[in-house]
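Page header: ASSEMBLY MODEL / two components / 711 residues total.
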Amino acid sequence: MELVEGLQLQDVTVSIRDDVILDQISFTVRPGTVTALIGHNGSGKSTIMKTILGWQEKKEGKVSLHHIDQDDAFLTFKRDLSYIPEEPFLLSELTIMQHFQLYGQSYQVEEFQLSERINEFIKHMEIDDKLDQYPESLSKGMRQKVQAICALLPDVSLMLIDEPFMGLDVYASDYLQEKIVEKAKMGTTILLTSHQLDRIKDFADNYIMLQQGKIVDQGPISSLPELKRRFE
Amino acid sequence: MSSNSSTLNAYINVKKNRIKKKQKLYKLALGVSLDVTISIYLAAFIVFGGLILYSEIQQYQAQIFKVEEILKSNYQSVIYLIILRSMIGSFVRPGIVFSSAELMLSLLPHSRNQLWKYCLLEKLIKLLAAVLLATIILLMLVTDLSGLFLLSVLGLVYTVQTLMMIPQWRLYQRGTVAKISIIFVVIVLAGLVRLSVEFFSIDQWIAIVFFYVLLVGINIALSKKLFRHVNWMKVVETNDQLIWSMWFINKISNVEIKAPKKYGLLQQLFRSNKTKQAFSYQNPNQMYRRLWKLYFFEHKVQVFQTIGGIVLIMVLLSFHNEWTVGVGVSIAVFLFGQMAASFFVGGFDDKLVFSLPWDLQAWKQSFLTWVYGGGVFVLLIIATVLVFYSQHILWIPLQLVFYICVTIYFTSELINERCYILSRSSDRISARNTSLIILLFIIVALSISFPYLSVVFLYVYFMKITKRRSKPINHSLYQ
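Prediction written out in full:
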């Protein structure tokens, strides 16, 4: 199969010991679109995320982003993606501000751009008074906000978002949704997982439905009423 | 900015902040626990305590020189000890302190492999500072040991520890059975090398060079598969626990940082997929074995304390002479048997067991399966001490068989006695058997100096077993 623009998975199989977790998964997410991975718990959504991130070893198959094969140039591949995990993954060693700086430095965001973006995000996410604190002193929702800001800081061509609205208040959820749409409009490829079908139908373009590690259906999100009926 | 320098900057940045945070925590804890008066008294105590310790050490200079002499003729034992220490350490530590901080950095555009290499380098630098510089300075200040001797011993320690980092990392990723098997192979190899050194009167430095070459070869072979089948989450959780478990802070805050539940050695042993399988209805022993397993898991602290005590006794007594090593082996066998007997009785305290119409014979057999499994550890400890210490290295296999027989005999006699008590039988261990047990322990103690005693006893033992087998078993005892 020819490598295409955007994110492409070709026949990806993941197995842990003898259990097949992902079975011959193939799909493409075009640049500037938002695609939602949906399925019951244990269907393989998070494993797809981990495989794209390189956390989970593939048994076979290919993952590419804008023609760059994950196996051939992993660092280049990774430099072009950011990730919001379902559970906030922050360091006990760093304050909230230091997390933002670390992300900025790692993705080589210009200093003025970085401070501009930090100021905007912390204001909207209402964490401007928490910058000197360590993650463990924050609530889970607050930590989730910090994680989301970290992932929004760099300009990348792929964003992986695992349950983006979990633990966020309504205002922060709306703001994050707004930012995701904005990123997509700027050409970023967005792949997210969510159980909140009512919310994702408002801004996602496509869906991929998983069941026991296999794709059972995919298509435009406009078919959501039909999809919801089947999903439930 | 190149990718590597950016990764190094991020790595150093995180490490600096970790130190800062730890300093903050220590300052807070010290602020809570110490005031000016206590600080002055504590400082005075440290100064005077140090002076007293120094003058005490000066009185033992002759013994210290003796240790120097022993070590000079036993450099190869130092190597074996370091190798074994790292291998045994692989049960609980990966050796390379790759924590969640590095894992998180690897989510960003930084290479995980590069970060791992920085962790390795950091450890080498810390080891150099701790092992070589700090220890040499401290020992030179408080003892009259020669600088050259200290440099050679600590040089050996440093280089072997360095060469063991990658093997420990790889071994940590392996299962328990593989680890035990590899450790066993290494002990046998060390024994064979020592045997060759003794038997062919080879210079010990040839053995040392052999181990260095072997370790370098192993490192080269393993470096190709450093990151194959690595359970990163397990590595990270273990290291996080090591990094953030600060004894002083834990005591002051009354919050103990516990090891990750899912990944400890015991959890692996006790929560494997096999344990989730249904019991075989045809085989009641299987269910009893599981119950015993759970019981040992609940009492793991006592199990470790006993085994730790055995290790300590063996190590301490092995530094004196052959007699004390023999006494050490006797004590090890005695402690092991007593521990087994007391666990056997303790198992009946379990309410579930108490409410079951148990089959005492099957219950005993299931218990002994686990006990003899644990006995392998004790045997490994004894074997290790003998390999390092014994002057009669050719006799070691026979001595070990002898100790196994004594352990089995002593443990089964004790358990049988407990069974008599539990079944309210009037039978007890006969005076003849008690005398035999006492004799056995004396022979064990003497067997290091006079290894041929092992053969004599083995003959007697087999005669006794044969005789016992020809006797009918009193089944009513277990009903």
